[in-house]
Amino acid sequence: MYMLRGEIYSTPCILANSEFLETHMNEDLFLNWVRSTGLDISIGVFVLGTLWRLFEIYSLGRKTDLAVPRHRAGASGLHTLFRRSVPPPGMFKRSPISYVGGYVFHIGLFIVVFLFAQHIKLIQSLTGLSWPNLPAQFIDATAVVTLATMVLVLAERINKPVKRFLSTFGDYAGWALTFLPVLTGYLANKHLLLSYTTMLGLHILSVELLLVFIPFTKLFHVFTLWGSRWYNGDVNGRKGVPT
Amino acid sequence: MSASIEKGISVLKEVIDAPIASYFSSCVHCGLCAEACLFYTESGDPKYTPIHKLEPLRRVYKQEYTLLGRFAKILGLSKPVTDEELEEWKPLVYDSCTLCGRCSLVCPVGNDIVYMVRRLREGMAISGHAPEGLAGASQRAVEIGSPMGVKLPAVKAQMKHVQADTGIEIPLDVVGAEYMVLMSSMEIINFPEYLAAIARIMKQAGKTWTLCSEAFEATNSGIQIGVSDIARVLVQRIVDGAEKLKVKTVISPECGHAYTALRWEGPNLIGRPYSFEVLHILEVLDGFRNAGLLKTSGFEEAKLTFHDPCQLVRRGGVLEEPRRLLNLVAKDYVETGDPGKMNWCCGGGGGVSAIEEAEELRLTAFKVKKVQLEATGAKTLVTACANCRIVLEEGLEHYKMDIPVVGLTETIAAHLTAKE
User: Fold this and answer.
1) Could you report the per-residue pLDDT of B198-246, keeping only the tens digit for each?
2) Do A89 and B115 touch (CB under 8 A)?
3) What are phi and psi of B291, to 5 degrees?
4) Nearest CB to B338: which of A89, A164, A221?
5) Which domains are assigned to chain A?
6) Is residue B36 part of a domain?
7) What is the pLDDT of residues A163-207, one digit of tens each?
8) Distance (Å, rounded) from C-alpha B182 to C-alpha B250?
C-alpha cells in the first residue's frame, strides 16, 4: 500500500503532471468563465449602460429655434456628421499627430475588430450575421500598426503641453482599456508570451472590461459624437454657415 | 453655500440641455480646440484651451445630470462648484473668449464649445462673477439705452451733422418706411460716416427708411455678459420700435454681435418669431447690388483686404456678400489667410473690448492678426463691424502698423454714381 501510494503520489513525473493538470483546469475555468458569465455580465452592463446614458443625455431635449433659418445648400447636421472627419483649413499642420494618429488607430481598430475571421465567426454565432474577412497576415500587420500608433498618440499626450494639461486619469484609463484588447488579441493569435488559452482568456477579459467602461467614460464618444456633430451642424446649417 | 453661488448653479442647471450633455460626453481631450483659439495660439498657455474654460459647467452637468455623478455627489466624492472657483474662472470665461466660435468649427467630435461658453456666462453673471466693464455696459444699456451711455440727443445731433454734410434729410420715426436702421454706439460716437453712407445709398436706391427714437441702439450687452433677461429687454425694445413703425425690414448695422443678438438669438429670447425681417447692412447692400440699385463708379486705389467679423461669417452666415460688394470698388483686393468662416478674430469680440483687465492679453492675441495683415501687404483694411474696427485700430497702433481701417458701407458709399 505504502509503496503504491508512494509510487502514485510522490514520483516527480506524476507531480509535474498534476500541476500541469491543475494549471490546465484553472486556464480552462478562467476561459470558460470569461466566455460565459463574464461575457453575460459585460454585455449586460454595456447594453443597459449605453441605453441609460443615451436616454440620460438626449432626454434633456433642446428648445425649438424660433429664428427664421437662412437655408444654404450643403450646410446641415447631416453634412457635418461626415465632413467633421476632415481637418478644417489650417488645422492639420497645427496638430498633425492628432489627425494622422486619430485616423490610423480608429481605422485600425475597426479593421481588427470587425474584419478578423474569428471575430466574424463569433458575431455570426451570436447574431447570425456575417461578412467577408481580411487575410490573417493583414490583420496581424494592422494590429501592429494600431498598437504602434496608439503608443505614439499616448507619447504625444504626455509630451505636448496642451494635451498633458487636459489629461485626466480617465484619459489614460481610456487609452489602456482600448490598448489591452488589441495587444492581448495579437499575442494570443501569435501564441506569444503565455499559453494560447490563458492569453485568449485575458483577451476576452480585456474586451469585457472595455465594454463595461464604454458607457461611463470618454469612450462613450463612439455613440455621442454623432449627436454632437448633428447638433453643431444643424445650428450652423440654420445660419447658413457651410459645414 | 452662499446665496449667489446657489443662484449660479441653479441657472447652470437650467441652461444644460441635450446638446450640452452630448458635447461633454463626447470630449476626448484631444486639445484641437486650443489650436483654433487665438488666446492659446498667441500666448502658448494651455489654460486658454476652450474646453477647459467650461470646467465648472462640466462639473455641474456631471453632478446633476448623470447617474454616476449623482451617486458621487450623494457620497460626498465630488468637488462642488464654488464662488471662489467661478471667480478664478472669470478670466477664462470672459477675458480670453470673444465668442468667436472657431473652436466650435474645428472640434472633431462636433462640440459647439462657444455655445457652452455663452451658456456658462449666464451662471457666472447671475452669481456676480462677470467683469466690471461688461456689467457697467449692460447696466447703461438697460438704464440709459446704450452700453456707452449714448442718449437720443446725441443721435439727433449726429443726424443734424449728417444732414448738413450730405444735404439729405435723415428720417426719424417714419411710420410705414420699408427699412428701420439701427446703429451701434460706436457708430454714433466715433463713426458718423456710417449714417451718412446709409443716407446716400438709400437715396440712390430710392428706398424709404427711418431711424427710431425708441430703438436706435443695436448692440446687446446682455448676450455678451450672459444675462438673457437683459438681452431680452434690449431685443424687445427693437421689436416694439419696428412693430410700431410697421417697417418691413430692420437693418442690423456694421456690428457683429448685434446681428447675432437680433437675427439669431432675438426670437428665442422674446419667445416668438418677428413680424419683420432682420438683415445685416451687407445683406441689404448686396440685395441692392443684385437688383441694380447700387451703382458705383471708380475704384479704390490702395490695395485692400477684408477682416471678416466672426459673428457675421462663422456665427452668422454672411460670407459672400462682403466679397461681392468689395468687388464693385476694389481693383487690388487680397484675402488674408483663413478668410471667410475660418477667419481669426480681432480679439475684442464677445465683450472682451469692454473688459479693461483683458487689454494686455487682447493685444497679445492680436499678433495673429498682425502676422496675417503683414502677409497681405494691404494698405487699407476694410471690415464691417464697428467693434472690430476699434479693436483693429488699437492693435495696429500698438504694433506700430500704419494701416487705416474703414467700414465697408462707407467705402461703397464713397463710390456711388451721382444721379443724373
Assistant:
1) 999 999 999 999 999 999 999 999 999 999 999 999 999 999 999 999 9
2) no
3) -90, 5
4) A89
5) 17-57+97-239 (1.20.950.20)
6) yes
7) 999 999 999 999 999 999 999 999 999 999 999 999 999 999 999
8) 7
